[in-house]
Design the sequence.
């Protein structure tokens, strides 16, 4: 597969880990053509760190800044700026294993029926922090499959058919989007093995008050049922 590839990284006050996240993209055995970093109103040095990253001649980094509007809006902004035919996403505090993109591109090449591919996840706790009590440690130790933008490599044409992330969600936007995608017949394959290292730390959104609430989940399910009911 020779399609061009773009990576979108939204960041909000992520100066502590952003350079590591970007470096994990640059260290890919199949590096992308461009990286879009969307600074979502950071008040720290996130933008400066992104601007100072040393890049190989084969990869371009585009930095855009906006007022704080949440990860859905930031990812949508990044998508609008991409030129790649394949799109991948990474949060500013997580890491990819070096062969993440290569293995997922190979998977899409071998399975033309798949609109996108996700992967398993290895979670780790930043030194000095504790695994969040709200999470099932046994589940994460099993390297679960995660339907998340951070594990996703998707064909642009498929993403266009599903549509943008819903900006009404400042959390749960992944869940809402994947539910909508499945309702519209998208097929997601799973690349075996953990290709994303998901970092738990004291400030990340994944275990804060911004996690998906039961009310949001109920709303997502109701919207899905409405879509299916309205199908011809």
Sequence:
């Amino acid at each position: 597969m020779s399609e061009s590839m773009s990576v979108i990284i939204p960041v909000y006050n992520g100066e502590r880990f952003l350079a590591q996240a970007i470096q994990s993209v640059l260290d890919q055995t199949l590096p992308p053509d461009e990286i879009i970093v969307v600074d979502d109103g950071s008040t720290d040095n996130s933008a400066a760190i992104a601007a100072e990253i040393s890049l190989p001649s084969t990869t371009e980094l585009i930095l855009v800044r906006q007022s704080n509007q949440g990860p859905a809006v930031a990812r949508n902004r990044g998508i609008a700026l991409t030129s790649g035919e394949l799109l991948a996403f990474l949060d500013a505090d997580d890491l990819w294993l070096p062969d993440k993109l290569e293995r997922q591109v190979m998977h899409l090449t071998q399975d033309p029926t798949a609109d996108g591919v996700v992967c398993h996840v290895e979670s780790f706790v930043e030194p000095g922090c504790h695994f969040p009590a709200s999470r099932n440690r046994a589940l994460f130790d099993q390297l679960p499959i995660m339907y998340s933008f951070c594990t996703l490599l998707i064909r642009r044409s498929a993403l266009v058919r599903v549509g943008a992330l819903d900006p009404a969600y400042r959390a749960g936007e992944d869940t809402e989007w994947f539910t909508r995608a499945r309702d519209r017949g998208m097929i997601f394959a799973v690349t075996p093995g953990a290709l994303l290292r998901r970092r738990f730390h004291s400030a990340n959104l994944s275990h804060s008050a911004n996690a998906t609430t039961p009310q949001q989940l109920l709303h997502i399910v109701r919207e899905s049922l409405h879509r299916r009911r309205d199908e011809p």
Observations:
- Residues 205-210 have pLDDT under 50 and may be disordered.
- Residues 49 and 142 are 34 Å apart (CA to CA).
